Amino acid sequence: MPAALGSPEVMAITDTKTVAASFEAELRVARSVLIGTHMNPDGDTIGSALAVSHYLDGLGVANEVLCHNDVPVNLRFLPGADRIRHAPLRADHDLAIIVDLDSLDRLASTAPFFAAIPRSVVVDHHVPHEAPGDLRIVDVAAPATSVILARLLAEIGATLTPEIATCLLTGIVTDTGSFRFRNTTPEALTIAARLIEAGGDINLVSEEIYHRRPYCSVKMLGHLLDTMHLECDQKLSWGAISYEDFQSVHASDADTEGFVNELLSIRTVHIAALLREHKPGKVRVSLRSRGEHDVSLVARDFGGGGHKNAAGCSFDLPLDEAVQKVVAKLRECLGYC
Ligand SMILES: [Mn+2]
């Protein structure tokens, strides 16, 4: 695969057959694989990584899965979640498989472990930020990295175990917002159906991810909805959660998962932003938009990235300064300067 930085069109993969053959060839010669996920992990990166891990288990290929963060509580039900570590146990991995990220920075503290590995495969669906990986399997039109992996495994003729199916299903369910977002393509539904046929437990996935929230998360949502702002003729909604807010209800950033979608759910809103000061002076921003407003451009301006309708960035700034920067940019985006 070409490794040059390119337009999304250039990077889009249309020939699954060729790509699957290259993917299989990499796996065939690998003796030990280190699997990488992005920081602040979501269901797609964790689900994809564990699906690869279970598949390699089936092939008898040694593997380990790393993540910078602990696995979020609502993803710990996933088969194999307990094998995810912050650092590898062994140092002789000869292949890296990195899922759902467009820049090696996003491996965060696990990046050095991957840098030492001679070959790497990146499977991703983000608009390329950098172009890491010896083999790049990137399709920005794919609804989830888990969809790309499901395509690859189908093409290879892999047996989908219930474990693999539940992991991939989790990636698809979370990245499509339970089949509600614009990226809910016929293919996403078809693959999900096949995964359920293979023993993927959709009920377990929905229950664990959406209906087992900690109390502090619900309290935090109440606070956010209470203090949010609506401006630009109600087209822009934004909210900010300070470090003190987090401490007052004993919540962490992971407890705010999905909150930005609540801000976007207001009928008039075109763009929504949620800023969280997860550590003093460290602010994480989630941006969401409807239709043609491209928030990935805004995120990129601040060194972040993502998709047209869902993107993110972060700041090493006091919360109010980060708010000022982001909100000014979003007003501009909507034609209110
Ligand atoms: Mn994803």
Explained architecture:
This protein has 337 residues and is an alpha/beta fold. It folds into two domains: 8-210, inorganic pyrophosphatase (n-terminal core); 215-333, Diaminopimelate Epimerase, Chain A, domain 1, CATH 3.10.310. The chain has 13 helices and twelve strands. It has helices at residues 8-11, 16-29, 43-59, 111-115, 145-156, 162-175, 186-197, 202-210, 215-227, 243-248, 259-264, 295-301, 319-333, and strands at 32-36, 62-66, 84-85, 95-99, 119-124, 135-138, 229-231, 236-241, 271-279, 282-289, 305-306, 310-315. Strands 3-2-1-4-5-6 form a six-stranded parallel beta sheet. Strands 7-8-9-10-12-11 form a six-stranded mixed beta sheet. α2 (16-29) packs across α5, α5 runs antiparallel to α6 and α6 crosses α8. The longest helix has 17 residues, at 43-59. The protein starts with 7 loop residues before the first helix and ends with a helix. It binds manganese (II) ion. Manganese (II) ion binds next to loops.
